[in-house]
Design goal:
Layout: H1 2-18, E1 30-41, E2 46-56, E3 63-76, E4 81-95, E5 102-120, E6 123-136, E7 139-155, E8 161-175, E9 181-193, E10 198-208, E11 213-224
Parallel strand pairs: 1-11
Antiparallel strand pairs: 1-2, 2-3, 3-4, 4-5, 5-6, 6-7, 7-8, 8-9, 9-10, 10-11
């Protein structure tokens, strides 16, 4: 019990130490993403994916993007693979040039994805291939994304896995028309497993485009039930 309390306090301390950097405003080009990712098992094979992302230009109160995503997935290969058909709604609040004015952009998105999981020793690897059909206002676009993630658990003195782990991923986005390169996201963070169904992560993500980039602090909750 004491170890569990200590672990929770340490996780809160690490997150708390990272929060002050969120006090920087839009001028610092540093944003904050609050993310919830959930998966509901319908039976041994089928699952319902649900996701909410609230993205800010700064610490809070300056909405950059609201993303809602859901989908129906099918698991096979002894739980190591999953295919999913999904839908997403995205509301973007884009600044107009260097002014303080914003314009709202609505996007409806259909996507298909395939996830493959593997382990190398204690390290967990995940590959995600996603193809998107994007209806952005009156425009239609298609995009391919490849996501590679790894999770490395800490070990205690008994050489057993503890509840803390390191998390990292890289995701590249490619358009089907020019310019082909859309963006790349590189992330590293610290995670804590509350129980078999819930994990939380706090980390730093750099997102760079062809002509620039942005940095984000991400706070993520994963729930499986």
């Amino acid at each position: 019990m004491i170890k569990q309390v200590w672990s929770v306090n340490l996780a809160a301390l690490v997150i708390g130490l990272m929060l002050p950097i969120l006090a920087q405003g839009q001028d610092s080009n540093f944003g904050n993403w609050l993310i919830y990712i959930g998966s509901k098992k319908l039976d041994q094979k089928w699952n319902l994916h649900h996701e909410v992302q609230y993205r800010n230009y700064d610490a809070a109160g300056d909405l950059e993007q609201l993303l809602l995503r859901t989908g129906l997935g099918y698991t096979f290969n002894e739980g190591k693979s999953n295919v999913l058909l999904g839908y997403g709604y995205i509301l973007s609040e884009n600044y107009v040039g260097d002014t303080d004015d914003k314009v709202s952009v609505n996007e409806h998105r259909i996507f298909q994805q395939f996830i493959s999981k593997q382990s190398i020793g204690s390290v967990s690897l995940s590959h995600r291939y996603r193809f998107e059909q994007r209806f952005v206002e009156s425009d239609y676009k298609m995009r391919f994304r490849y996501f590679l993630a790894l999770r490395v658990p800490f070990k205690n003195k008994e050489k057993e896995n503890c509840k803390f782990y390191l998390s990292a991923y890289n995701e590249i986005f490619l358009n089907t028309r020019s310019a082909v390169f859309d963006r790349n996201r590189l992330y590293g963070g610290l995670g804590y497993t509350l129980n078999k169904n819930i994990r939380i992560e706090a980390g730093y993500m750099n997102q760079f485009f062809e002509t620039g980039g942005r940095d984000q602090f991400n706070l993520i909750t994963f729930v499986n039930f």
